[in-house]
Design brief:
Length: 472
């Protein structure tokens, strides 16, 4: 049954691709088509398969209609109330009314409208965003995977490497880390006030003193990061981070803004050595895979640090959720919000995306949405199965990588190999670390794209073996 449904959605995906869903203003009603296909693949068409792919910023036009409907006809209201009462019908994007409302005025000197200021207009959204504080659990990766200390030797991540937690903690966690953070560039993905500072004052902001700038920052990740000050405009999404525009140029429009706003921070990036400016190492969907990005770094001769014991020029990957997801199986028909922001209804009837970003495995509403395609598969078990497999492989490959590093360090210090030979081995080690890290640091642990995770670990292992051959 699951296979049938997934096959159906693959067909749907191809159909949508042809219709180029990421072009604006598309709202494809495919009920008839879905029913037909469903019969073919033997899926009982449960309810109306209305593929709602319209982007929120396009919604005001529809909203106007929706507004008139709600205001003008008691019937429409009764219907909404009815469906809420029934409870069994799960809410979809189509239930959200994207109203145009007047934005509050910003009290802050930098002009960023804060969550507290938006709360008067969008109480449910602001309160739900505040609930990100409930996600406070975090662990030390260095304790969980001790081999990392050896691999990252000589770099800040060997000192302190905590798992991520909710958006409410960004300013605390960036200040608390034992990794060195002399300049303000570390605030790039932590607060809208820094985003605004860069937008207003240019890349000079990146080299300002960390402590001085941190003291002025008001908000953790907030409305401005994803909406600029435009949330009143039907929840319009805006890519506010300047490096995204600089790196992607016009290609920024080839990404669904709902995915791209998360991709502003949940990405692989580097700091340009001269300016400390944050930058994405690719310019398009085609150039964002691990091979292409590695080639990019080779090309510009970039490294994050030189490792003393091995003499190798090393790279550290950062949380490439966006890149991993975009090359995965859901990217063509789901947005980050579909699995991380449940659609909820308040007591007064407002339907909205909860802005508490959470694991779909820990939220019943989100888990229910999986069933449309995954049927009655136990999703928690399914996802954990993938994660257990990937995590076990990480330990296996990471341990081998650490052993390889020891051999190289020994050779580097003993003088048992020529400099040419050492350089060959160093470059193999650099690349093996790259592919290992690309998988390890991606926060879904294989759930976003298990094939990419497997491929990276296999590639790393092959490289380690070819490097170890020098010591046979
Ligand atoms: C302005 C940068 C920024 C944007 C935009 C952003 N995030 Fe985050 N996100 C972070 C940072 C930084 C953390 C880690 C915070 C910490 O640990 O202190 C994080 C943490 C998370 C976590 C919790 C991770 C965990 O392991 O508990 C989730 C889930 C998440 N983000 C999802 C999203 C989604 C979905 C979007 C888009 C709707 C998004 N984020 C947009 C910066 C951002
Ligand atoms: C098809 C559903 C789906 C979509 C769409 C999706 N994710 Fe995830 N994501 C997951 C699952 C499943 C996990 C693993 C959750 C767990 O381990 O509890 C996860 C984990 C994460 C985590 C780690 C946090 C945590 O709670 O473990 C982050 C951060 C994240 N996703 C960000 C994103 C971003 C950014 C996007 C869009 C580019 C995205 N996700 C799209 C399903 C999805
Ligand atoms: C991390 C990024 C992020 C932040 C921070 C954020 N939003 Fe959103 N917002 C989104 C995404 C993603 C959607 C869903 C868009 C879609 O339909 O795919 C959304 C949707 C909305 C909508 C449309 C209605 C709905 O629920 O879908 C409104 C209005 C809105 N946000 C207001 C706000 C306000 C006000 C704040 C601050 C209190 C805020 N947002 C903070 C990303 C963000
Ligand atoms: C619109 C349809 C659709 C929805 C909704 C959906 N999925 Fe999927 N999912 C798919 C398809 C299609 C595949 C690919 C199946 C294959 O290739 O065998 C897939 C595969 C997966 C995989 C394996 C990915 C990999 O790379 O190995 C995971 C994990 C997953 N889904 C989790 C979820 C979770 C969790 C939810 C709900 C929060 C969800 N999915 C909702 C269609 C969907």
């Amino acid at each position: 049954m699951q296979a049938g449904r997934l096959f159906f959605y693959k067909l749907l995906t191809d159909y949508l691709r042809v219709k180029s869903m990421y072009k604006r203003k598309i709202n494809i009603i495919i009920c008839g088509c879905a029913a037909g296909l469903a019969l073919i693949v033997g899926v009982a068409a449960t309810g109306c398969a209305k593929a709602e792919y319209s982007l929120p910023q396009e919604a005001p036009a529809e909203t106007a209609a929706a507004e008139t409907e709600t205001a003008g006809s008691g019937a429409a209201e009764a219907e909404t109330a009815g469906s809420a009462e029934a409870g069994a019908v799960s809410l979809t994007r189509a239930d959200i009314k994207y109203l145009n409302v007047e934005a509050p005025s910003a009290a802050s000197a930098d002009g960023v409208i804060t969550a507290a200021e938006w709360e008067a207009v969008y109480p449910e959204i602001a309160v739900s965003m505040g609930n990100n504080a409930e996600n406070e659990y975090h662990v030390s990766y260095l304790e969980e995977s001790p081999y990392l200390v050896n691999i990252y030797e000589g770099y800040g991540f060997a000192k302190d490497y905590e798992s991520a937690r909710g958006h409410s903690y960004t300013l605390d966690d960036v200040a608390a880390t034992a990794r060195p953070h002399p300049t303000a560039n570390c605030l790039t993905c932590k607060t809208p006030n820094f985003t605004k500072l860069v937008n207003d004052q240019g890349v000079g902001a990146y080299t300002m003193d960390f402590n001085e700038v941190h003291a002025q920052m008001q908000e953790t990740v907030s409305c401005y990061n994803c909406h600029a000050n435009e949330a009143g405009n039907g929840g319009q999404l805006v890519v506010t981070h300047s490096y995204v525009h600089e790196a992607l140029g016009d290609n920024v429009d080839t990404f669904d803004p709902s995915i791209m706003v998360c991709g502003q921070c949940h990405i692989e990036y580097y700091f340009v050595p001269e300016t400390k400016e944050a930058m994405m190492p690719y310019s398009s969907l085609e150039t964002m895979g691990p091979e292409a990005v590695y080639a990019y770094y080779q090309n510009i001769g970039f490294s994050d640090w030189t490792q003393e014991s091995t003499g190798a020029q090393m790279l550290k990957v950062q949380h490439p959720e966006f890149e991993t997801y975009m090359n995965g199986k859901h990217a063509k028909f789901l947005k980050c919000a579909d699995c991380h922001m449940p659609i909820e209804q308040s007591e007064s009837g407002t339907v909205y995306h909860s802005h508490k970003l959470q694991s779909p495995l820990e939220n019943e509403t989100l888990l229910e949405t999986c069933a449309a395609c995954h049927g009655d598969t136990d999703m928690v078990e399914f996802v954990h199965g993938i994660q257990d497999e990937i995590t076990a492989r990480e330990t296996e490959v990471g341990t081998k990588l650490s052993d390889f590093k020891d051999k190289l360090a020994e050779a580097n210090q003993s003088g048992s190999k020529s400099e040419d030979e050492l350089n060959e081995i160093r470059s193999i080690y650099r690349e093996a670390q790259w592919y290992f890290d690309y998988c390890y640091v991606e926060n879904s642990e294989g759930a976003h794209n298990s094939q990419l995770s497997r491929d990276c670990l296999d590639r790393s292992e092959e490289l380690i073996e070819s490097g170890m051959a020098y010591f046979a």
